[in-house]
Structure to design on (577 residues):
């Protein structure tokens, strides 16, 4: 009996030790995975859910102002907002999230942990030295492999267009992207970066130095560290060339000294738009300008800014040399070629003295504003979160720790005293809440570039989403007005309509200087790679009258708060709806 008891005791001790060891290993692994983002896990799943995300105000709590979601056990009662500056008072209660949203966020947390775990495992795998002979170059790809070349960042020849895809880059994908934009050569580097151009790099390298495997295609070479695998892309068929994205920009008065304004020109009888666009694309210019039989290529500049278009009738009969108001006007087209004067970006060489936030409610255009700031200043923007989709498309500051101060500003959707006061200053980007809510709902169900389906819009999720997020839109602005140390308020709608003046304000606020030509380049590339495409939702009104009444009251509160701080009030288009 004693022997049996001793064996049982020994087994239990061993089991207890094993459980203790497994628990410790699990905790250590979790700590390692979330070391940089321990307090940001929930935000990744919900696009940066604010710690002070507000929910509708129940009738019984009208005196408290805009309420933190933790104050509410049940967000369903009829919402009512106290319009006035007392909404700036701090919440008096601190309760938990409603069970419904807690379950949703716990689910998102589990998914995020899985992504972090798989990313961690893949990052920890030893880097295998892939033998050059094992790599495939041109055997399974269109086009001709030209060799391995040195990628000189100071004298880039393949700079006509640049693309990133740190998950799915393939040789074919890069070749097709360059061919669609009328380039002759496609070069791949670091396994994930694609460069296009019409001139081969000068310096060749040893074939084995191009040894980076393509992120989206095992066994294929996509350059190396400062090395380019260069392919001559297959010439598109005539029909495909005609379908290239040549955009009509308008009729403009020709500059006084047109030959000095544009660096390349061609005189051709029976000149067509396709001929001029093809010529300028080969020269790697984004503008094709036609005046009679003359074709000019160049960029938007101070002398030819494309800001003051003329009546198209003044360009009628353009192909007659003596017409078009005696050659005073010209037709302008955008070629498929990217304007590269503002595409170079890097991290700050020294830590920034000021810690600047780029703050907005989700869906208010933060990613677009980051695109504009990065291309205007030439420096990466950071992020309080880690968004793999943005990082994979070239926002390299996403992976840099947000406190590193190596970026020009830091994206955040946070609000609340602690989260705001850690920044020295902030650009506060505000967008119409109706548009913001729809944009964030689209992102939640279809990603950065897609649209939610009709089924999503007509489901119970949409009214729940509005009830939860509408007041967060207001509380976000109110908190930053209250706790922000130094603010520049930018309205999304003003930025769209007056891009260069507003972008200048933002750049000056960041203590940077920028040339007029670079700003014109940003304007020429204004959309970037994150403008929504695809089938839009059907033409129906997603907001019920109850939703509109709620949102309009929040709008009035924010407008009053802005004016109370001597900022410009909300644009007139916001209210009433």
């Amino acid at each position: 009996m004693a022997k049996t008891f001793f064996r049982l005791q020994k087994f239990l001790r061993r089991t207890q030790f094993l459980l203790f060891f497994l628990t410790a290993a699990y905790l250590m692994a979790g700590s390692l995975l979330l070391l940089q983002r321990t307090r940001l896990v929930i935000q990744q799943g919900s696009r940066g859910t604010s710690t002070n995300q507000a929910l509708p105000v129940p009738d019984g709590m009208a005196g408290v102002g805009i309420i933190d979601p933790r104050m509410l056990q049940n967000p369903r009662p009829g919402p009512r907002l106290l319009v006035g500056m007392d909404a700036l008072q701090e919440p008096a209660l601190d309760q938990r999230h409603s069970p419904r949203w807690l379950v949703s966020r716990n689910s998102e947390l589990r998914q995020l942990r899985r992504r972090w775990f798989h990313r961690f495992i893949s990052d920890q795998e030893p880097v295998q030295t892939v033998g050059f002979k094992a790599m495939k170059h041109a055997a399974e790809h269109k086009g001709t492999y030209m060799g391995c070349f040195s990628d000189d960042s100071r004298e880039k020849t393949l700079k006509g267009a640049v693309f990133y895809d740190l998950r799915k880059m393939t040789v074919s994908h890069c070749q097709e992207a360059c061919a669609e934009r009328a380039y002759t050569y496609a070069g791949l580097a670091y396994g994930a970066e694609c460069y296009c151009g019409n001139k081969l790099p000068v310096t060749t390298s040893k074939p084995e130095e191009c040894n980076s495997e393509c992120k989206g295609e095992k066994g294929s070479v996509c350059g190396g560290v400062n090395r380019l695998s260069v392919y001559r892309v297959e010439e598109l068929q005539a029909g495909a060339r005609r379908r290239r994205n040549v955009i009509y920009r308008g009729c403009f008065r020709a500059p006084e000294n047109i030959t000095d304004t544009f660096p390349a020109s061609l005189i051709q009888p029976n000149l067509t738009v396709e001929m001029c666009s093809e010529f300028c694309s080969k020269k790697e210019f984004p503008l094709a300008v036609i005046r009679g039989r003359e074709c000019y290529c160049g960029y938007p500049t101070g002398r030819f800014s494309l800001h003051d278009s003329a009546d198209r009738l003044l360009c009628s009969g353009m192909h007659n040399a003596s017409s078009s108001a005696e050659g005073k006007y010209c037709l302008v087209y955008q070629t498929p070629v990217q304007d590269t004067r503002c595409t170079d970006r890097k991290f700050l060489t020294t830590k920034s003295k000021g810690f600047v936030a780029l703050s907005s409610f989700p869906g208010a255009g933060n990613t677009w504003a980051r695109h504009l700031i990065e291309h205007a200043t030439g420096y990466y923007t950071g992020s309080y979160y880690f968004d793999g989709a943005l990082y994979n498309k070239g926002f390299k500051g996403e992976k840099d720790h947000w406190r590193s101060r190596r970026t020009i500003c830091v994206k955040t959707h946070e609000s609340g005293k602690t989260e705001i006061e850690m920044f020295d200053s902030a650009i506060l980007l505000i967008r119409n809440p109706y548009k913001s809510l729809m944009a964030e709902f689209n992102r939640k169900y279809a990603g950065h570039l897609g649209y939610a389906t009709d089924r999503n819009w007509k489901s119970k999720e949409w009214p729940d989403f509005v009830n939860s997020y509408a007041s967060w839109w207001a509380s976000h602005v109110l908190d930053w007005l209250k706790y922000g140390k130094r603010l520049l308020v930018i309205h999304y709608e003003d930025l769209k309509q007056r891009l260069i003046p507003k972008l200048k304000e933002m750049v000056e606020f960041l203590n940077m200087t920028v040339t007029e030509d670079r700003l014109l380049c940003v304007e020429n590339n204004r959309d970037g790679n994150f403008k929504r495409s695809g089938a839009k939702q059907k033409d129906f009104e997603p907001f019920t009258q109850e939703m509109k009444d709620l949102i309009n009251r929040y709008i009035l509160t924010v407008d009053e708060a802005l004016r109370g701080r001597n900022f410009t009030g909300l644009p007139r288009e916001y209210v009433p709806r």
The first helix runs from residue 2 to 33. The first strand starts at residue 144 and ends at 150. The domain at 356-530+542-574 is CATH 3.40.50.300 (Rossmann fold).
